[in-house]
Amino acid sequence: MGTDRKDEGPLDALIRSLAGLPGLGPRSARRIALHLLASKTEVMAPFMAALAQAAESVHTCRSCGNLDFSDICRICRDERRSRQTLCVVAGVADLWALERTGAYKGRYHVLGGVLSALDGVGPDDLRIASLLQKVKDEGIQELILALSATVDGQATAHYLMDRLPAGALKVTRLAHGIPVGGELDHLDDGTIVTALKSRAAL
Fold first, then answer.
1. Do 29 and 89 fall into the same domain?
2. Does 67 fall in a domain?
3. What pTM was computed for the model?
4. Judgement on whether residues 99 and 191 belong to the same structural domain of the protein
5. Of residues 65 and 174, which shows the higher confidence score?
């Protein structure tokens, strides 16, 4: 029988909060909690300060959906980046994975997820309308659909293809090196670079 939340102490609450983070289970959460409490000055205090600063200072970019310290992120503000190429990703982790390689010099658009009937995620839950408006208004010449090779990722790509304007817009997708069922954030840099360079028209 689990502990009633109203009866749990601060340590139980800390472990439960940590266990709720992606990739952490109860055992990992207990180890982290013990480490934090054993090093309050050296580890816990700076960690709490970093969390508080991030919560206060990090914003979602109004243009692309990236995370940064200003309303318009550094990537969108960079005049050296191509304004004609737009790379569509599901989440910020995917954007960071592509940026890590240094192989892409255009701009991004973060959808905020992928379509998923099972999870109840529909078009209105994603930043699809703003993407279509951006393509219409900003003279985008190439749209790279850098979505994971999962069923939901590919379904989202097909949905976007059906709604993008026909004509001069070139639509490509990541190609070689992306395994079926693979997630961008879990791939090595070389694989992502190969996929970017080998992208193919849809």
1. no
2. no
3. 0.77
4. yes
5. 65
**Is the pLDDT reported for residue 131 higher than 70?**
yes
129: tokens are: 């309308």
In a domain, 73, yes or no: no
For residue 17 the two structure tokens come to 């909060």
Q: Do 83 and 107 touch, CB atoms closer than 8 A?
A: yes
Q: How far apart, in Å, are the Cα atoms of 140 and each of 68, 76, 82, 86, 168? A: 24, 14, 10, 7, 9
Q: What percent of the chain has pLDDT over 90?
A: 73
**Which residues have a Cβ under 8 Å from the Cβ of 130 and sit 6 or more positions away?**
109
**Mean pLDDT of the 100-128 span:** 95
CA distances from 138 to 83, 86, 114 (A): 8, 10, 23
Boundaries of domain holding 164: 79-201
Instruction: In whole angstroms, give the CA distance from residue 36 to residue 38.
Output: 6
